[in-house]
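Sequence design from tokenized structure. All designs in this work follow the same two-part layout: the structure record, then the generated sequence. An example of the structure record is given first.
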């Protein structure tokens, strides 16, 4: 009977996948297909949870099969991240009129990412005070205590590296190793290696133009093939979101969410405020924030369901370039840097909220100006170093809490709602990267305003 029910559940998702394929064949817009996948995934997940429960064998077996569609899609995206970054960065630099533009682009992108992370820390602090969050109010279960012990064990790894050492990890010692994604900083290392190749080609073009011309032809050929692969993979986005959302909802711990509901609400209020700040920045630079929002929503939907900033890089780049009119080199660099540096949700809001929650439990006044100033500065600086120790909100929290001499084990109290909050954090991280790319391209006067304002430009490269 159990096997029969699993087969029925598999048949259900196959039927829904067929519906999404038919929508594509009927030329339904990409955005509508993405949100259809999201909605159908939620319904499928709700059915699994209420019919079989979150911990049943049937749910476990069913979600294993559903992960072929969800996690399988994420794997395909990860497969094309490194080739996409390499050929796009090299080609973009080859087309630069002045190499000095590369430095200005990098500074603006990193400046926006780190600056908005500092603002995100302030927003997180404000939300903690608004909801009067206090770690002493939360009771720890066995899973949370285990998580706390794990965090304490990993703290030594964090403390072994200073911030300069973490930044040093960005520099590629073995670019071929970084192409495998072996290190937490592999993505940035590949960006740096690709930039060096591009700058070298510019030098060769001045002295040995015939050799440079041959290399450029090879790069352009690789670029055409890689972009075709990207297009093919991105067409699977609605199916990937369907699988990811169904698994997420089916396994969501509703009891844990209700118990820690105040922290979940405070987190999403902070995330929502930071999204609005991003839109305000877009407006300040003379762009329509509603046009921007409409074009990035499909990317944010995938980031929300996948909880993977790195996996969202291809969608991020495609949306910036094809929908927003951002110059290609800027789009590649902002998406790549934004996946590991200055993450507004993981490195900004989350550590700041935890610090304010935990401070009273050890006798520190979280309203003290000295404490708040120190916290914001540490959050901004450590947003560089998160990638050097593995990346993600957990390590961001480890770095900030240990730097503030606060107990890291208390961060384990939130394990039951971590996946739910991480969905919103990842979407904010990705939006921060797209905001930095859009603003940088605007400042560098390379933003295609006609393309930005074109309502039909959302999916020109993801056509049926």
């Amino acid at each position: 009977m159990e096997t029969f029910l699993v087969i029925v559940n598999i048949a259900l998702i196959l039927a829904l996948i067929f519906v999404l394929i038919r929508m594509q064949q009927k030329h339904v817009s990409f955005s509508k297909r993405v949100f259809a996948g999201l909605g159908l995934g939620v319904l499928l997940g709700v059915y699994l949870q209420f019919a079989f429960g979150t911990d049943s064998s049937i749910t476990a077996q069913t979600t294993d099969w559903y992960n072929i569609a969800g996690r399988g899609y994420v794997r395909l995206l990860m497969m094309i991240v490194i080739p996409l970054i390499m050929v796009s960065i090299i080609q973009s630099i080859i087309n630069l009129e002045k190499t000095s533009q590369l430095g200005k682009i990098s500074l603006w992108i990193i400046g926006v990412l780190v600056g908005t992370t500092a603002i995100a820390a302030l927003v997180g602090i404000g939300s903690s005070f608004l909801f009067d969050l206090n770690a002493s109010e939360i009771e720890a279960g066995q899973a949370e205590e285990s998580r706390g012990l794990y965090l304490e064990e990993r703290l030594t790894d964090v403390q072994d590296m200073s911030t300069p050492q973490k930044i040093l990890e960005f520099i590629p010692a073995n670019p071929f190793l970084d192409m495998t994604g072996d290190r937490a900083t592999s993505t940035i290392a590949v960006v740096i290696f690709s930039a060096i190749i591009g700058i070298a080609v510019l030098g060769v073009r001045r002295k040995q133009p015939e050799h440079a011309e041959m290399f450029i032809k090879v790069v352009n050929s690789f670029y055409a093939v890689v972009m075709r692969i990207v297009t093919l993979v991105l067409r699977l986005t609605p199916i990937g979101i369907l699988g990811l959302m169904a698994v997420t909802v089916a396994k969501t711990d509703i009891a844990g969410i209700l118990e820690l509901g105040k922290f979940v609400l405070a987190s999403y209020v902070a995330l929502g405020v930071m999204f609005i700040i991003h839109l305000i920045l877009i407006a300040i630079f003379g762009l329509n924030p509603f046009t921007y929002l409409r074009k990035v929503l499909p990317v944010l939907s995938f980031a929300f369901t996948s909880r993977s900033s790195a996996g969202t890089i291809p969608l991020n780049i495609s949306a910036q370039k094809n929908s927003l009119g951002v110059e290609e080199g800027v789009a590649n660099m902002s998406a790549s840097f934004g996946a590991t540096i200055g993450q507004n949700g993981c490195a900004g809001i989350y550590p700041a909220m935890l610090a304010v929650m935990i401070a009273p439990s050890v006798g520190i006044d979280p309203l003290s100006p000295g404490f708040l100033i120190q916290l914001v500065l540490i959050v901004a600086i450590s947003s560089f170093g998160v990638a050097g120790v593995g990346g993600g909100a957990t390590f961001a929290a480890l770095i900030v809490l240990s730097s503030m001499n606060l107990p890291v084990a208390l961060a384990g109290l939130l394990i039951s709602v971590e996946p739910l909050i991480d969905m919103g954090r990842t979407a904010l991280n990705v939006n921060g990267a797209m905001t930095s790319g859009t603003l940088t391209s605007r400042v560098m006067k390379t933003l295609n305003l006609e393309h930005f304002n074109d309502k039909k430009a959302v999916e020109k490269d993801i056509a049926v």
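The longest helix spans residues 57-94. We note this feature because it recurs in several other targets discussed in the main text.
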